[in-house]
Specification:
By secondary structure, the protein is mainly β. 9% of the residues lie in helices and 22% in strands.
Amino acid sequence: MADDEVIKYVIKDPIECNLSYMPFINEGGLFIPIMTPTANNYSLGDRVVVDLLLPGKVESLRIEGKVVWITPKNPLHHV
């Protein structure tokens, strides 16, 4: 992944916020659905930078993390 690429993620409401949080990941995690052609460029272990806008906030948070899960393109028919 390009070092200068930043993922922009807007969480619209508290329900989406709760659904995005992944407490079973060490130190917590955030599920970020990415449905763009560049999503295929991510691999497990890749470092990522995310501009995260939380519900009710006007300023985003810049957070760093790494990819620990990749959902297959068609998870119901993945072989």
